[in-house]
Amino acid sequence: METEIESNSTNRFKLWSELELQEFTDKFVIKSMESPEEGFSISRSDGTIDKLNGDDSSEVPPKVSTIYGVAGTIRLLAGTYILVITSRKEVGTYLGFPVFLVTSMKTLPCNETSRFLTNEEKKDEAYFMTLLKIVESTPGLYYSYGTDITLNLQRRSKLAKGWMSKPIWKQGDPRFVWNRNLLEDLIENKLDGFVIPLLQGSFQTGEMKLGKSPAVIKLFSRRCTRRLGTRMWRRGANLEGDTANFIETEQLLEFGDHISSFLQVRGSIPLLWEQIVDLSYKPRLNIINHEDTSKVVERHFNDLLKRYGGCIVVDLTNQQGDEGLLSKAYAEEMHKLPNVRYVSFDFHHSCGNGNFDNIELLYKEISEDFENQGYLILDPEGKILAEQKGIIRSNCIDCLDRTNVTQSYLAQKSLNSQLQRLGAISSGETLSMFIEDFELFKTLWVEHGDEISLEYSGTHALKRDLVRYGKQTMSGIIKDGMSAISRYFLNNFQDGLRQDASDLISGRYTVNRNGSSPFRPKGFEPISYLPVASALVIGGLTVTSITLNQAGRNAQHLLSSMVCAGLTAGLMALIKSNGRQICSRPRLCGLL
Question: For position 211, what pLDDT does the model report?
Answer without folding.
Answer: 84
